[in-house]
């Protein structure tokens, strides 16, 4: 399993839309859109958990593309990004 860090997401993008974007490349086991603890609004980044091969395909296909007029960036998550 690989956890992906997805950044520069449009603030109105829903967790379901984010999950759907990645499901085109394989099953998504976990999708977490990070929200501000005080306002509940999106902070513009998410974590996606997928099988390794599917994650690699998703990175190649989505990284640097535009989603809702914002260029999104996708990479393998590090412990620092995940808050570990």
Task: Tell me the count of domains.
Answer: 1
Q: Number of DSSP helices?
A: 3
Q: Residue share in helices?
A: 25-40%
Based on secondary structure, the structural category is alpha+beta
Q: Gyration radius, to the nearest Å?
A: 12 Å
Looking at the overall shape, the CATH architecture is 2-Layer Sandwich
Short structural description:
The chain is of the alpha+beta class and 84 residues long. The protein has a single domain (2-79), classed as RRM (RNA recognition motif) domain (Alpha-Beta Plaits, 2-Layer Sandwich), CATH 3.30.70.330.
Q: Would you kindly provide a written description of the structure presented here, covering whatever features stand out?
A:
It is globular and about 35 Å long. It has one domain (2-79): Alpha-Beta Plaits. The relative contact order is 0.31. Strands 2-3-1-6 form a 4-stranded antiparallel beta sheet. A two-stranded antiparallel sheet has the order 4-5. The mean pLDDT is 93. It starts with a strand and ends with a helix. By secondary structure, it is α+β, with helices and mostly antiparallel strands. It has 3 helices and 6 strands, in the order E-H-E-E-H-E-E-E-H. The protein has helices spanning 15-23, 52-62, 79-82, and strands at residues 2-7, 28-35, 42-50, 66-67, 70-71, 73-76. The longest helix is centred in the last third of the chain and has 11 residues, at 52-62. A hairpin with a 2-residue loop joins strand 4 (66-67) and strand 5 (70-71).
